[in-house]
UniProtKB/TrEMBL annotation:
The name this protein goes by in its record: Peptide/nickel transport system permease protein
Record domain ABC transmembrane type-1: where: 100-311
Gene3D superfamilies: MetI-like
UniProt xrefs under PROSITE patterns: ABC_TM1
Organism: Paractinoplanes atraurantiacus
Amino acid sequence: MRYFLQRIAFYLFTAWAAITLNFFIPRLVPGDPVQSLIAKYRGQLSSDAIQSLYVLFGLDKQESLWQQYLDYWKQIFQGDLGLSFTFFPAPVSQVISQALPWTVMLVGITTIISFMLGTGLGVLAGWRRGSWADGLLPVTTFFSSVPYFWLGIIAIYLLAGPDSFFPSSGGFDSGLVPAWDQYFIPSAIQHSLLPALTILISSVSGWILSMRNMMVTVASEDYITVAHAKGLSERRVAVSYAARNALLPNVSGFALSLGFIVGGTLLVEIVFSYPGLGFTLLQALGAKDYPLMQGIFLVITISVLVANLLADVAYLLLDPRTRKEG
């Protein structure tokens, strides 16, 4: 219990530091969001309108920095992340809530599939060394070292085209309105196949390598020899003894990868112009939309911290040794 409370305190402190940096960094860079908006409208704003914009975006120069900092925390607790320049007058929270499901569905499903597939193949490759499964290692090593977005570019070049089944960009066909109906869902699935395949090929390779190496290490342990000496079946020894213990580091890695669902494949979304957080962040960068950038970075930071905490809890539950006092 003490260990658990220490971890929660650590993550709360880290969250405070991340939110504080998220507040100060845009205020330390030259210029400010309002000046970018003034340049966008080529100086066609009155002095009263400019002052109103400073108040609207929480940058009122008549307030102290400390007061702005307190107001920022107040807004966060209320779920108010400010207004977006790119999608003005839509609030940042609304823009993120529209983009986040696309990223979670795409990366979340592929992460779960790659973990299950990679872990299964890794167990097979590690337990039956020298078999056909072990021969996959050079291929998996190559693909695990290739960045997601490079695979995406290659996939577009080889598989996408005017007459291809795979669309090269977008999240659904133009002319459709997002809805849970028989027209939109097939179109969304079709547009997600190529980016999902890109993420799957690259990520499954890492799971195979890590699980295979852990299986090789565990196979030489004494309790595996004892299990064989008891006359237990090969399958039971492999699954109940070897794989069960080799799985612990992979479970922690899987929990951590869940945190990077939100921000781990931003470049893939940019390559495919997929309407998730990555593509939204690209639009925010192009328009110098500081409130939207702050909101996206904050969501990514919090999701990674929560995933780290879940990884600690999962390891605490799965490995009894971590629950014993030193």
